[in-house]
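Key result, reporting period 2: structure in, sequence out.
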């Protein structure tokens, strides 16, 4: 007697369950598809969770020292990724040290240890362990990282084949391989299998506040046996066409513990804006990790810095209109192009504001903002307004009888080549971000010189600015000039 069933790869097989010999199946087995052969080659059905580790290089996305330059490079001494495809969830642990570029002065690099998680639609980081006797570090929500970390799961070789099988991928033969494409959770994935049915290139797209629909692409090379698993020995990942990870894989195994002991995911904090009045008509708008300043001028509002994302910008715009009712936002002043400081600018463009930025940044923004935005259309994508720029190279003044605003280039700073600080001469307030972050109250002063901070103080003296207070765009709040001076001269 013969029983016919479908095995995990969809191939019809004949099972002999009688003791006596019987004729073979009369129907011919269909040829397995390229996707089925790929699943068999990687043993996908028997790998519900996977761990791989290695060393290489990591690049800090969105933080280049000038538009057009590569993202800052870090040497990775340890990289371990654990992926549970069933949950789905992942944990990535990285130990890295920034590579110092020749000719660019940066602070002495400090080894960083990243511990990153995603589970379903929630992402968070676990900070480094607290000192002995201290409280355990609290997880930090990372809602902006969800899409990228999900993409890391489903662009992995085993994840891509699993997702392609589940989502009824289309297959198209190519020269020496197979192109595979499918849609999962509203996101398009495509990949290429080589002649040996190994994924060698996988791509999807994720949303970014600056670059819109941003291609996330991974290439795999040098497939080999790691114990009983087949896996690529070399991985290269790019985001927006720029490298973000280059990894030489040393170890691969089935994850014995899966990710059963996930830390509790923290809640996502709502966007909040708190107001500190620096002077009549000048307001310091704080919230989370990034701050802005609102200046009331006779013919409109000036907002200094549009960081992070549209949610933050919407909240700051609403608060600005509450503080200064009946006036339009005429300008948004941008300190530099780093994505955490420019991710909310497009919202101000839709609001009708002119972007004030260094001349080197305008071509970058024009190109980046022209990218498609189909994944998460923002206000500007819906309105189609044309961005307006007012640029400077050394100095620009937004004139006003009561509250003039001076925008100065921070010359020679290793953090960024198109870097601005903003000075309010009537209030004697300096506004800057990333060149210096004040220490929290009660914290000991820095023991080592930070070249960014020293350079900022040198620029203040060079320009003969009569600064009394600094409203930093990061950190705990307003600080006196004496604190900046002490930090600039630390270690000297």
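The corresponding designed sequence is given below.
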């Amino acid at each position: 007697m013969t029983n016919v069933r479908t095995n995990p790869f969809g191939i019809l097989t004949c099972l002999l369950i009688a003791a006596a010999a019987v004729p073979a199946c009369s129907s011919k087995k269909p040829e397995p598809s390229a996707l089925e052969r790929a699943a068999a080659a990687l043993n996908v059905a028997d790998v519900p969770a996977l761990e791989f580790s290695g060393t290489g290089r990591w690049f800090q996305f969105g933080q280049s020292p000038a538009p057009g330059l590569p993202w800052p490079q870090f040497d990775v001494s340890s990289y371990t990724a654990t992926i549970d495809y069933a949950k789905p969830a992942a944990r990535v642990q990285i130990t890295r040290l920034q590579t110092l570029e020749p000719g660019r002065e940066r602070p002495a690099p400090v080894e960083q240890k990243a511990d990153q998680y995603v589970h379903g639609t929630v992402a968070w980081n676990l900070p480094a362990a607290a000192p002995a006797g201290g409280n355990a570090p609290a997880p930090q929500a990372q809602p902006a990282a969800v899409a990228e970390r999900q993409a890391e799961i489903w662009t992995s070789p085993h994840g891509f084949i699993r997702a392609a099988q589940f989502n009824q991928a289309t297959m198209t033969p190519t020269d020496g391989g197979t192109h595979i494409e499918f849609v999962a959770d509203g996101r398009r994935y495509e990949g290429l299998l080589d002649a040996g049915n190994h994924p060698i290139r996988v791509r999807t797209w994720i949303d970014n506040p600056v670059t819109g629909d941003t291609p996330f692409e991974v290439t795999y090379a040098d497939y080999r046996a790691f114990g009983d698993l087949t896996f690529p020995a070399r991985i290269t990942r790019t985001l927006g066409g720029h490298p973000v990870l280059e990894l030489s894989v040393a170890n691969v195994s089935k994850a014995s513990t899966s990710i059963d002991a996930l830390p509790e995911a923290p809640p996502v904090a709502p966007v909040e804006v708190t107001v500190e009045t620096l002077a009549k008509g000048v307001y310091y708008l704080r919230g989370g990790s990034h701050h802005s300043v609102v200046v009331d001028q006779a013919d409109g509002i000036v907002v200094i810095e549009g960081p992070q994302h549209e949610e933050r910008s919407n909240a700051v715009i609403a608060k600005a209109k509450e503080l200064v009712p009946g006036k339009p936002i005429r300008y948004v002043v941008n300190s530099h192009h780093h994505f955490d400081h420019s991710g909310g600018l497009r919202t101000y463009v839709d609001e009708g504001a002119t972007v004030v930025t260094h001349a080197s940044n305008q071509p970058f923004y024009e190109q980046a903002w022209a990218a498609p935005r189909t994944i998460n259309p923002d206000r500007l994508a819906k309105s189609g307004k044309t961005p307006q720029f007012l640029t400077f190279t050394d100095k620009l003044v937004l004139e006003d009888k009561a509250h003039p605003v001076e925008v100065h280039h921070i010359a020679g700073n290793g953090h960024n080549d198109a870097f601005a600080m903003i000075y309010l001469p009537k209030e004697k307030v300096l506004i800057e971000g990333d060149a210096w972050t004040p220490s929290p109250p009660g914290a000991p002063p820095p023991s080592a010189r930070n070249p960014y901070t020293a350079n900022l103080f040198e620029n203040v003296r060079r320009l003969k600015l009569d600064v009394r207070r600094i409203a930093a765009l990061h950190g705990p709040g307003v600080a006196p000039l004496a604190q900046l001076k002490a930090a600039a001269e630390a270690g000297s």
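The two ends are 90 Å apart (CA to CA). The longest strand covers residues 212-226. This case is discussed further under Risks and Mitigation.
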